[in-house]
Amino acid sequence: MSIVYGKIAISLACTILVLLFLLRKKQLSAWLNQKSPAGILTLGWICFRLLPFVAIYLLANFETTSDVNGFWDEASKASMGQIVYRDFWSPYSPLYAYFIGIWLKLWYHPKMIVLVMAVMDGIALLASWHFFRPFQTRGQFLFKSLIYLVLPGSLILCIIGAQEDVWMWLFVILAYLVRERTLKVVLYALVLAFGLLLTKAIFVLILVPLFILEKEKIQLLVPMLAVGIVTLAILYPLVGWEFTQPMDEAQTLRAPNIPAILNPVFNNNIGVGQKFWNWIGLLSSVGLGLLTAWRLRKSDFRIMLSRVWVVLYATMMIVQQSAYSNYIFLFLIPLVFFIIDWNSRKQVFLILLFNILCVVHPSYWWRLGMPCYLSLNDIVSSAELFIDYIMQSTIVLLTGYFIWLAFPKASRL
After folding, report:
1. What angle do CA 164, 150, 346 make, to 5 degrees?
2. Can you tell me where the transmembrane regions are (predicted)?
3. Residue 88 pairs with which residues in a beta bridge?
């Protein structure tokens, strides 16, 4: 449980730092309004990404754990020219392992993967400045950037967990920024297609509302189909149907999610583990995302995308039986920069609690042996299991609250 205690300690330190920033919000925002965004973001990245990396992995010489070792298995083999899905298993899109493998040419070590994640997180934050700046002053954005960089959900999941989920947000806003500057739908489509090939299969979910709202549907669809056909033409002769490996992730039972917390209440009679739960999760998350997009169809694209992104992927996090709380890293940027009212004490308290629980629970749950509760008796059979179930339930409830915050209310449209 040492990793759990370590995450708790870091989370509390991060929380205290966030609260100190909030106490000086007005003064900090005014000061930051006079500074260069690139300079402040670079300094913030050095302080809260590079220095923690150096302290943990170089000075303290801690070894990488958890998902990083899985990424290492993929990326190291990809860097040696092996074929994804055939020579090594991967739950990610076909280019993911090769992208990380390129970085391993600079430093052939698992710790390099953590540094890659930190760099990509910094790029996502910089791109977000260009995405959000029409709606926020420089001082407001840079203040929220500092908050984001020190939140437990971003710092721990990036530097200790080495999660890549923020990449999906990066590619969808890069696609928009390319279209905004070039006015070419084809380039917009190609960046989206490249994002899908480089991240996860779940990236395709956001393409549904984007396609529905797109006026130039043919120009969007044809380039993406062309990229897909070329990709399959290369992959199928090499690996056959093994390119469907990322879909296997949907069968993996994790927690917390709605099926996991409901299962003991119904004495294991709701069919947890069966495929129909995957369809329920898919339809509910995409359905809510589509409804959000449709309600905001006349709004600015950036407003629509921010809310749709949080609603869609936060819903997926609690309805998909293979989802777990690390997915907070997927939608944390739009949640921090656009959804949360940092003047509301209630929202500040809940987002901080949400961050702490989301980073602590995966390690706690894993070290308990990944329990799956079959009855109410299982929950109260030990104090450790009871704490785990309470954490799961709280995460699901808080996720639901933030979905409600992000969902456009009819009275406000």
Report:
1. 105
2. 6-24, 36-60, 112-132, 141-162, 185-213, 220-239, 276-294, 324-342, 349-366, 386-407
3. 84
